[in-house]
């Protein structure tokens, strides 16, 4: 009985020894990266406006700044901007110096204080962007910058681009395999090669009534996929 068990164990070990090289046998593969893009028309935007005031007394500069910024916020809300779409992103107080003879190493003379307050505005209806910009400036904003465009369809556009990139990667793998006189076999691995890539392209300038003309342009959402395919 013991001999039979020993023989069975020995036989199993021998079979395993012959199987190991087969399991570790290398497989020829081809790697390809596919890409795809989806173009969108922006339907949202953000911009930043600010109020900068200066006075010899910091308290006076602060008060003037607060009063003007409140007018700007009230004007934006009156134009239809929800309070949740207004976010202060910077508030600063800095001394202002007059450098004698215009040199940094010259004597510094304090001229007063500068107070800046900036707010970022999210625009849900993009056709309101020019009107909102004009309303903020008319209410007293003397700094405007950072206009950018987005799309509420960005996530679904990326899904579409991702699927297209996977198909493109398989197509390229097939072309490479054919060029080598082989055929593309089973897919060994698939990897998303990047996160969402978003680019902006200007297309045309659109003027709304007598408001500030704005170029909405287009948005391009791109995706990359890397595949490893066995060669037959």
Describe this structure in words.
With 232 residues, this protein is of the alpha+beta class. The chain folds into 2 domains: 26-41 and 153-231, Translation Initiation Factor IF3 (2-Layer Sandwich), CATH 3.30.110.170; 44-150, Protein of unknown function (DUF541), domain 2 (Alpha-Beta Plaits). The protein is 34% helix and 41% strand. The chain has 4 helices and 10 strands. The protein has helices spanning 2-24, 58-78, 129-138, 154-179; strands at residues 29-40, 44-55, 86-99, 108-123, 143-150, 184-192, 197-201, 205-206, 214-215, 218-231. Strands 1, 6, 7 and 10 form a 4-stranded antiparallel sheet that branches. A 4-stranded antiparallel sheet has the order 3-4-2-5. β3 and β4 form a beta hairpin. α2 (58-78) runs antiparallel to α3 (129-138). The protein is elongated, with a radius of gyration of 32 Å.
CATH level-four homologous superfamily name of the largest domain? Protein of unknown function (DUF541), domain 2
The secondary-structure class comes to alpha+beta
Low-confidence stretches: 1-23, 202-210
Q: Any idea of the CATH topology of the largest domain?
A: Alpha-Beta Plaits
Number of domains: 2
Distance between the termini: 48 Å
The overall strand count is: 10
Strand content: 35-45%
What composes the largest sheet? 4 strands, antiparallel
- Per CATH, the architecture of the largest domain is 2-Layer Sandwich
**CATH level 1 name of the largest domain:** Alpha Beta
Order of helices and strands: HEEHEEHEHEEEEE
The helicity comes to 25-40%
Q: Determine the mean pLDDT.
A: 84
